[in-house]
Design brief:
Layout (H helix, E strand, L loop, with lengths): L5 H6 L3 E4 L5 E6 L5 E8 L13 H8 L11 H8 L3 E6 L4 E8 L3 H13 L5 H19 L2 H13 L13 H5 L3 H11 L5 E7 L3 H12 L22 E8 L4 E8 L7 H12 L5 H7 L4 E7 L7 E9 L5 H17 L4 H18 L3 H14 L4 H10 L3 H11 L5 E9 L41 E5 L5 E6 L5 E8 L13 H8 L9 H9 L4 E6 L4 E8 L3 H13 L5 H19 L2 H13 L11 H10 L2 H11 L6 E6 L3 H12 L23 E6 L6 E7 L10 H13 L6 H9 L3 E10 L3 E10 L4 H18 L3 H18 L3 H13 L6 H10 L3 H11 L6 E6 L6
Parallel strand pairs: 2-6, 7-11, 13-17, 18-22
Antiparallel strand pairs: 1-2, 3-5, 3-6, 4-5, 8-10, 8-11, 9-10, 12-13, 14-16, 14-17, 15-16, 19-21, 19-22, 20-21
Helix pairs in contact: 2-8, 4-9, 10-13, 10-16, 11-12, 12-16, 17-23, 19-24, 20-22, 25-28, 25-31, 26-27, 28-30
């Protein structure tokens, strides 16, 4: 019997159960890995809001992490953190969801937490005051993004009556003035078992899971039926236009056509049209706009929503291309699909790409739970059972009919983003800081450290072999899904860029898939996209990496193309010209992004002139791109590409013997390259004293902050694991579970994003701390950051913090192996850093062996606040 189709496989085995209080429970056992995903989906989103309380669904989502009758402030996140869970929440137009993915033996914890906050969330006034600044910071991050601003403006112009008019995050004034009483009413109106669906996917026993759900959710009383959304958007009777002006780099054009609800029979054809127009290099928009150097990027498609929404077509211009010219080219492609059917080849390619996208989701219980829950909210989870059959039943003529029906000028809203030179930012609130009454981290009651997982060890079926020419191959056989993931690397990284030609390694890597001696760029892309596969090359600091994926039935096609691109690239001049144009467009956009500006300035401050890892200034980078020729690419490939030190990892539904034969036949005769150069010395001395770099960026609503200094930590150093434990306590746990997150985000409400990390490679990279904040809060955030760095360096971490960090690092590791891609990443790192074949089994032991004294010694060795660089990029304000 053939395996189930991918879409049907997503719903195969799903069982639906109803509790007496109305809670719907969807369960699906998947025993490929000892992991389970648990989610609760509430049928409430921005669609249920009205003027005055826009954004309340999203704001309430934030408040659901702020404590219950059982859990104090911060304890939900800390408890999940200690148990190694991947957890988050999301709000969309039609729903709000909360999920945890964790080791299977900890399913009861997720059920207990979600049942508690369904009925007993506190929503305290003081917590709302603090979280308001965090949500405001999230708003400001979106306001910095030109495409987000344009999408919001176009949607607001397209809808006059329906609540899809406002963005999911809400209008700023509504969010800022939201009273606590409104949140409480909203919570009581929509959060109840009869307005929710529980989705459980993974390694569990259904009867036991249902018993747990009944024990924790069963006693909850149902709520009154929530108010029905009855507003229908009036017919649009003419094209609408809108222009957004803000500091930016490139014009953007968005066309939005009125589209039906996801449950409409016409929506299948629109899904295909989105793929034909906007997917990959074979997509019509890419061919018509990017290949002709009118656009640097394109996108098309319709979000699947409960009510009629929009089909978006978006294009970002190349430098020098005006919005009007870009719009005309987009309209030409829209008229083409209205005037004539798509080709049978285009339809077949779109169907395979859609099939493959479903197949890839079967790798992950998290992805399966998300897909099942999404459709349970939008229409019915059973929608997925017939989706591919409906797609396969489409004809080019049927699709043309649907295109002509919806791509009408009278139902179109056109938006242009027009960059300005950046006038002074107006509208900046004079104060943004919020004090927090209840401090989470210090003095909080201890949460029990969870016991070690009781899951038995599993045979991961990993093989390793080497070819005579030096290629190292690692294979993991896993038939859990009909797909595979590929990782390949060779020593041709950015550190080998010659002087004055920064970007040569990156351009060489990107050109690998743009034409070979046998195939043109389009032919190469077509062979991949015809089967929904991918091969994506790119240069990192030390190596050129190639990531790939395919359905297992297309393994040999993927290997043929990998061998071609590595050994026989053509580097066509016309393709190089297009790629250089896209690189210049990306640089132009980076100039206007505070995060990118801060990151580049930080790198230039930490690495001295002449260092291979020192990034060029924006002007220098643009000049270097212009100087690079085809001869440069050919020469770099001749010097650095070869089988020597090439690593190839394949994980998925393959056999080790089959992989060996495939690699031997395609790459076994590739001769070693005696010209290949090793990377240069990359050590960097600490700077003599601290320095501060302020980079004013008018007309931006959020400030990017980056702090750090040259580091001394390599991946293979004995204190690597101690430094990782120390860093997790400092900021590596992110905004919810670290000292920096606790103080800057939770206690002071100064930022939405906070994080720290070591760039510990084969070379000692820098330690970095990044955060995003409102400009008025920048100075306070920097001062708080400095205090916490100094406090940790001088006084170290506690035994409790060490235990929590180790619990998280060891508990989270199995989740990294949930997908073929995740497993391939870990196996590649094991080979590249020579971690040993037993690394997967010894990983937890490395961290459990770290003592408090070792972590504190790592802080003294690796943290140097008196010799660090601080970069602040954003609007000038009194707060700095």
């Amino acid at each position: 019997m053939p395996p189930p189709a991918p879409a049907r496989a997503l719903t195969a085995g799903v069982a639906e159960t109803r509790l007496p209080n109305g809670l719907r429970v969807l369960t699906k056992e998947v025993h490929g890995a000892p992991v389970v995903s648990f989610g609760v989906w509430y049928k409430v989103g921005s669609r249920n809001e009205h003027t005055g309380i826009t954004g309340i669904s999203h704001l309430l989502e934030h408040m659901m992490f702020k404590g219950t009758q059982r859990y104090r402030v911060g304890e939900i996140a800390r408890t999940l953190f200690l148990n190694g869970a991947s957890f988050n929440a999301n709000t969309y137009y039609d729903w709000t969801s909360y999920f945890e993915t964790l080791a299977s033996d900890r399913l009861e914890l997720a059920i207990q937490i979600e049942s508690d906050r369904m009925a007993h969330s506190r929503i305290a006034k003081e917590e709302l005051d603090s979280e308001m600044t965090v949500v405001r910071s999230e708003l400001e991050g979106g306001e910095n993004n030109p495409e987000t601003l344009l999408r919001q403006a176009v949607t607001a112009a397209a809808f006059h009556a329906h609540p899809y008019h406002w963005p999911v995050i809400g209008w700023r004034s509504d969010v800022e003035h939201m009273p606590r009483e409104a949140l409480r009413r909203y919570y009581r109106t929509y959060y109840g078992p009869n307005n929710a669906t529980v989705v459980i996917v993974g390694d569990f026993d259904t009867k036991h899971a249902l018993d747990l759900v009944g024990r924790y959710f069963g006693p909850l009383d149902p709520i009154a039926p929530p108010p029905r959304v009855y507003t229908t958007e009036p017919d649009q009777r003419g094209e609408r236009r809108i222009t957004v002006n803000q500091a930016g780099a490139l014009p953007i054009v968005t066309l939005a056509y009125k589209a039906p609800a996801a449950a409409s029979p016409d929506f299948y054809a629109l899904d295909v049209l989105g793929t034909v127009l906007g997917e990959g290099r074979t997509g019509r928009l890419y061919q018509a706009l990017v290949e002709t150097e009118l656009a640097s990027s394109v996108d098309a498609g319709a979000p699947s929503l409960h009510d009629p929404f929009l089909f978006f077509v978006t294009a970002t211009a190349q430098p020098g291309v005006p919005a009007g010219k870009l719009e005309a080219a987009v309209l030409d492609e829209i008229e083409r699909v209205r005037a004539a059917p798509i080709t049978p080849e285009e339809l077949a390619r779109a169907v395979r790409q859609i099939e493959s996208s479903f197949a890839y989701q079967t790798e992950s219980v998290t992805a399966q739970g998300r897909e099942i829950g999404y459709w349970a909210m939008v229409d019915d989870w059973r929608y997925l059972s017939t989706y591919l059959e409906r797609i396969r039943g489409l004809t080019p003529a049927t699709i043309q009919t649907v295109a002509d029906r919806y791509f009408q000028a009278d139902t179109r809203t056109v938006g242009h983003f027009v960059p300005t030179l950046g006038s002074a930012f107006v509208g900046l609130p004079p104060q943004e800081a919020a004090a927090r009454v209840e401090k989470v981290g210090r003095g909080a009651r201890a949460i029990p450290i969870p016991p070690r997982s009781t899951m038995p060890p599993v045979d991961r079926h990993i093989s390793r072999f080497a070819l005579a020419n030096g290629i190292a191959v690692v294979v993991q056989e896993n038939p859990a899904s009909p797909t595979l993931a590929l990782r390949a690397s060779l020593p041709a990284g950015r550190v080998l860029d010659p002087g004055g030609k920064a970007g040569l390694a990156s351009l060489t890597a990107a050109m690998l898939s743009r034409g070979t001696e046998r195939r043109s760029a389009l032919e190469f892309a077509t062979l991949l996209e015809d089967v929904g596969a991918s091969l994506s090359p790119g240069a990192e600091s030390l190596a050129t990496m190639i990531t790939g994926r395919a359905e297992s039935r297309d393994f040999h096609r993927l290997m043929d193309l990998l061998a071609e691109m590595l050994q026989r690239p053509m580097f066509p001049t016309v393709e190089l010209g297009r790629l250089k144009g896209q690189a210049l467009a990306q640089l132009a956009q980076a100039r206007e992004d505070p995060d990118s500006v801060a990151e580049r300035a930080f790198g230039r401050a930490v690495y001295p002139a002449g260092h291979p890892l020192r990034p060029p200034a924006f002007d220098e980078a643009e000049e270097a791109v212009g100087r690079i020729s085809r001869d440069d690419l050919v020469g770099f490939h001749r010097r650095q590409y070869g089988p020597d030190r090439l690593i190839l990892v394949i994980a998925g539904n393959v056999s080790a013997d089959g992989v060996r034969a495939a690699v031997e036949s395609r790459l076994g005769a590739w001769p070693r390259n005696p010209e290949s150069e090793p990377p240069p010395a990359l050590d960097v001395p600490l700077q003599v004293s601290a320095q501060e770099i302020l980079l004013p960026m008018p007309d931006k609503s959020q400030t990017a902050i980056q702090w750090g200094h040259a580091g001394g930590l390599r991946r293979g150093d004995p204190d690597f694991y101690a430094a990782q434990v120390m860093n997790l306590v400092l900021g590596g746990g992110g905004a919810l579970n670290s000292r920096l997150g606790t103080v800057i985000r939770d206690e002071l409400g100064l930022a939405y994003t906070v994080g720290s990390f070591f760039d510990a490679n084969l070379y000692p990279g820098p330690i970095e701390i990044v955060l995003g904040t409102n400009p008025a809060n920048a100075r306070k955030a920097v001062e708080a950051m400095a205090r916490e760095i100094t406090r940790l360096r001088d006084h170290g971490i506690t035994l409790r913090e060490r235990d929590e960090a180790v619990a998280y690092l060891t508990g989270r590791f199995p989740l990294r192996l949930e997908t073929h891609a995740g497993m391939a990443d870990v196996l590649w790192a094991m080979e590249f850093y020579r971690l040993g074949g037993d690394y997967l089994d010894r990983y937890a032991d490395y961290y459990r062996a770290v003592t408090v004294a070792q972590a504190n010694q790592a802080a003294r060795v690796h943290l140097h606040p008196d010799r660090a660089t601080l970069v602040v990029a954003g609007p000038d304000s009194p707060g700095r």
